[in-house]
Amino acid sequence: MGVSRDAISKYERDDNTPSVEVAKKIARTLGVSLDYLVSEQDNLEVVDIEMLDRMKEIQRLNNDDKSTINKIIDAFIRDTKTKRAYAS
User: Fold this and answer.
1) Which parts of the sequence belong to the HTH cro/C1-type domain (predicted)?
2) Domain range spanning residue 70?
3) In 1-88, at which residue ranges do the beta strands (DSSP E only) sit?
4) Whole-angstrom distance, CA of residue 39 vs CA of residue 37
């Protein structure tokens, strides 16, 4: 990550505050969003960084491809919910 143990220790003790760039590296290393890392709210969900990266790639696709992917995802979610309902 390129951050010394001493610096991390100071961040943990609130003796120092990391720069935005360092905070982004810490968040990426921990697999969370920067919002999650700096939030004081206890109810934030951890964002799956790999899924977020996939979503960014999907956004770059043409509209037809996006529509196809959305239909596949919707069908998978529907089927998963149905399986859970019948398993109960």
Assistant:
1) 1-37
2) 49-87
3) none
4) 6
